[in-house]
Amino acid sequence: MKRVQFGHSPVPYLFVAPQIIIIAIFFLWPAAQAVHQSFLLEDAFGMSSQFVWFRNFEDVLSSPSWLKSAGFTVVFSVLVAVLSIAISLFLAVRADEIIRGAKVYKTLLMWGYAVAPPVAGLLGIMMFNPLMGDLYILLNRIGLDFNHIQNGNDATFVVVLIAVWKQVSVNFIFFLSGLQGIPKSVTEAATLDCKSAERRFWTITFPLLAPTTFFLMVINLTYAFFETFGIIDVSTKGAPGGATATLVYKVYVDGFLGADMGGSSAQSVLLMIMVSILTVFQFRFIERKVHY
Amino acid sequence: MYQSKWRSLTNHIILILGSLFMILPVWIAFASSTHTREFLFQHGLQFLPGGHFFENYGNILFDESATKGRVTALQMLFNSMVLGLGFAIGKVIISMMAAYAIVYFRFRLAVPLFWVVFSTLLLPLEVRIVPSYEVVAQLGLLNSYTGLILPLIASATGTFFFRQFFRSVPDELLEAARLDGAGPWRFFIDILVPLSVTMIAAIFIIMFVVGWNQYLWPLLMTTDDKLYTIVIGIKQVYNSLYEGGQIPQFPKAFALTIMASIPPVLVVVIFQRMFIRGLVETEK
């Protein structure tokens, strides 16, 4: 908080009013409804409903399809986060070292941030189209017997690849600015002391980038949880047999296509709890970082 | 800095490979979008552009029957522009005002209101999607620009960016302004807003891209084709690819993806420095 502030007046209320009104109508109201619905069991037509305490939660947590989806979400998120962080860190370190043409490479590697996830999904799934997709044909020609339409692992490979492709540029930007924040004197001293670029990276550069990496880990997990919805909806639609449905995708499928409001709301509330844990973690980290 | 020839060469090779990894899918999509569907069907995806650029793009831009919905790509681009700009402008104004109140004023409800705002970070729209749809339907806002934009604004990310920024503004400014007799309104409009111009621009750019790229929410609440954004149009065209027993319209789908990406990519590339500044400063 500021040391100096304005005194009492109605002015601050006027300034927060627009935000609070929008949040009340479009956030608090639906959020409360989600919690309320998660305790209700509705009949098939939504005509009557019954308060059933935690039954929806019990049903969700014991349903094989939800557990399968939870398992996929964990595997998917970790793969996407680790792979896209590793690739972009590698590229950022190289881009930071280069003197000639650095600007061109930076532009070529960062524009992907602006591509919408469903656009990435469509580009990806076209590359894997069995009729004419270059990657589909290539993978089969080298004898891998690749079939993402029937094989769950192959489908997972496709969505992970698309999600990583989409995320590399964001991580690249953060790593590059992190690297450029390292004082020149530190890099120069390290270069004098140690000729091996690889050792220099692991003993000096990487520890200095650790906060950025940690921050990106959280960002990437959140991305894999929520923003990949468009990728999955356009590319695999969770097929085959729910093998590539993330938890968010399942909320949508059960609630909108399956009209199971109670179950879908219970899933929402469970997701909300998971995300709050992640966010609180992140927020504390951000607050700590601001002080130095 | 000392650098061996070898290291510098591998750096370039790695960066070229990385750039190709990013660009190749988009290039193939562009090249393939300029061929006829029969040609693509027979010969697969293309690496070189063909001679049907104007025909394919003109068709989808201006002819309603070329997209599955009864709407031209031009109308979809317009809708995306409304969503992107409306979202970005609304978000910047509303969150800047709220952050001003939170940082510069001492008032009774400050703490509870701060927590209400903070709570929105915990629950993205994707999670409360079903009840949000019901609320917007009850308010009669389905298929309207208002219903499209307002629920998306109901998240406080922008407020936290501005809060962070205002806290770094020196206290002396406010002291000086108060000595000069400036009230809360004068201070906000004459001092704080001009001081935040680069920050505003950076957040505006990020939010425009976020708004333009929205998918799940527009997908649910726009059932009227006239309100489709171009990102939604992609799904509709892709879904109708195999309908009617004809040769699939792959060039059309590719043309739409290219058109959907050009505006946000241009914004990011042209305003690179502001964009990176905003992204790095706001998120950390």
From TrEMBL, chain A:
The keyword Membrane applies. Its main location: membrane. It comes from Thalassospira marina. Part of the ABC transporter complex UgpBAEC involved in sn-glycerol-3-phosphate (G3P) import. Probably responsible for the translocation of the substrate across the membrane. Belongs to the binding-protein-dependent transport system permease family. GO terms for biological process: transmembrane transport. Keywords: Cell inner membrane, Cell membrane, Membrane, Transmembrane, Transmembrane helix, Transport. It is found in: Cell inner membrane; Cell membrane. Pfam families: BPD_transp_1. This is sn-glycerol-3-phosphate transport system permease protein UgpA. The chain crosses the membrane at residues 12-32, 70-93, 105-128, 155-179, 200-226, 266-286. The complex is composed of two ATP-binding proteins (UgpC), two transmembrane proteins (UgpA and UgpE) and a solute-binding protein (UgpB). It comes from the Bacteria. The keyword Ribosomal protein does not apply.
Automatic annotation (TrEMBL), chain B:
It holds the Pfam family BPD_transp_1. Its main location: membrane. Signal peptide: none annotated. The chain crosses the membrane at residues 12-30, 81-102, 109-125, 145-166, 187-212, 253-271. Keywords: Cell inner membrane, Cell membrane, Membrane, Transmembrane, Transmembrane helix, Transport. GO terms for biological process: transmembrane transport. Residues 77-271 form the ABC transmembrane type-1 domain. It is a multi-pass membrane protein. InterPro entries: MetI-like (IPR000515), MetI-like_sf (IPR035906). It comes from the Bacteria. PROSITE patterns: ABC_TM1. It is found in: Cell inner membrane; Cell membrane. The keyword tRNA-binding does not apply. The keyword Cell inner membrane applies. CDD domains: TM_PBP2. GO terms for cellular component: plasma membrane. Part of the ABC transporter complex UgpBAEC involved in sn-glycerol-3-phosphate (G3P) import. Probably responsible for the translocation of the substrate across the membrane. The complex is composed of two ATP-binding proteins (UgpC), two transmembrane proteins (UgpA and UgpE) and a solute-binding protein (UgpB). PANTHER family: ABC TRANSPORTER PERMEASE PROTEIN MG189-RELATED-RELATED, SN-GLYCEROL-3-PHOSPHATE TRANSPORT SYSTEM PERMEASE PROTEIN UGPE. Belongs to the binding-protein-dependent transport system permease family. This is sn-glycerol-3-phosphate transport system permease protein UgpE. It comes from Thalassospira marina.
